[in-house]
Amino acid sequence: MNRAKKILLFDTIIDGHHADYLTHLITYWVENRPEGELIVVTQQSFQEQFKALLTDKPGAGTVQFIPISEEDIALVHGASMATRSFKEWNLVLKYSRTPNPDHVLLMYFDLFMLATWLGRSAPCAVSGIYFRPDFHYKIRPGLKAQLNGIRKKVTLNGVLKRKGLTNLFCLDHSAVDGLRALSPHVKIWPLADPVESYTITPAEIEQLRTKLQLLPNRRVLLLFGHLDDRKGIEPLLEALKLLPLAQQKAVSLVLAGPIQPDFREKIESKIAEVGQDVQIVCAFEEIKGRQIQVHFELSDYVLALYQNHIGMASVVVRAAVSGKPVLASDFGYLGHLVQTEELGAVTDATSPEAIRMLLQKVLTEKIPYSEINLQKLADRNSNVYFAETIFNHL
């Protein structure tokens, strides 16, 4: 790492993993005290957490926080997908003007692809974290899907052939070789999906079990994260309805994470249809820090039944940290990873009948998985390794 550089981290989104990624980078910076300066540009709501990260840290003086105004946040978040890329990019140029960094890291590069290809040039080096490359996925049938696939590939080619982008850190490791083959200028690096791990005590697990009022002698299935229609909750609930009565009584499902009011109303209606034999516990709130891991430690299986998900999912890494097998969608990199690394089992997550068959197997036979490979995945995705990979190449 060139320790004399002034590096700017930019993200207009601050929920979920966005805050976590910034936290990992800030923590690594202040604890290792590299020379130079780190500038964090994001929503005002992150400032309190930012201050807490710097408390009593010897490297705190080299880190600066610049809040993005609420007006600017509203401007980009309210934009259409066609124009948002350029509006976001214009904010990068605006907020990097005064600090004049040597290098800007776009924390969510997927939003910036069109603008970094066709928009104005940046006055400094630019790198990005690429979450969901799908150029290497088989294009789904239908004219609309095919045209969308062609558009994405043309954009990606334009981005990688234009000078200005320096590094692309890719969370989907299966895409790295393909990106390198397309890229004459940009350096492509596989990136860990970082998770901070804690030493959880049995007392903490039992305290949560009591809080959630989990019934004894049941398999605990955890569906964790921002709860929306992409998580596959509806086909899962339909699958639970299809289970025989005895197996319904062997399941406790924990839905843990924030949820929008309209979707919550829809899910609560679906839960009522499942009936009383399946225990369904709704922890509809944001869960942070070590309490996240306590939820995973408490579970028997972690659900990642995402609907046509592109890229990696941090819940798989969190499951690995706690040594818990994953029941995942068979689609894309996520399905490939779970299947080839023997991290659990996969199924067609769009089909209630297919999910029902997998759940029955879990409840009657258990499923084989590799504890060794779960530990290896956890080790490969530490928050320290994530930060080192980024800072060593900026």
UniProtKB/TrEMBL annotation:
Under the heading SUPFAM superfamilies, the entry gives:
UDP-Glycosyltransferase/glycogen phosphorylase
Which molecular function terms from Gene Ontology are attached? glycosyltransferase activity
Q: Record's InterPro entries?
A: Glyco_trans_1
Q: Glycosyl transferase family domain spans which residues?
A: 206-367
Q: Which UniProt keywords apply?
A: Transferase
Protein name in the entry = Glycosyltransferase
